[in-house]
Amino acid sequence: MAGDFVEAGQQAGLTALGLQTRKHLMSITAEARHDVIMGLSIRLGEMSTAARRRDRKDLQTMLAELSDSFRLSAAEIAAASYGPALIERMAASVGRIEQSLAA
Length: 103
Known about the structure:
Blueprint: H1 2-16, H2 22-27, H3 30-53, H4 57-79, H5 83-102
Helix pairs in contact: 3-4, 3-5, 4-5
């Protein structure tokens, strides 16, 4: 019961951020899920560039490595049965990073 409440809150948060929900990710093709992951990778790359402009080398490196990791694993994750759940979490994490950097 409490888990349902937490999950509903997470879903609402993802929707508010314009991110994909697990239900939606399950309904699309692996190719479309791959595109979602690549979009997340691009967003991380853009945040890495912004960190460089702010002279935050540590943050720039971490975001660039995370972006590369997403890009290199995109096909495997998109095709996996656990893909929609993992992509949902990846999207939520990217959203939280964006919010933290904007603050």
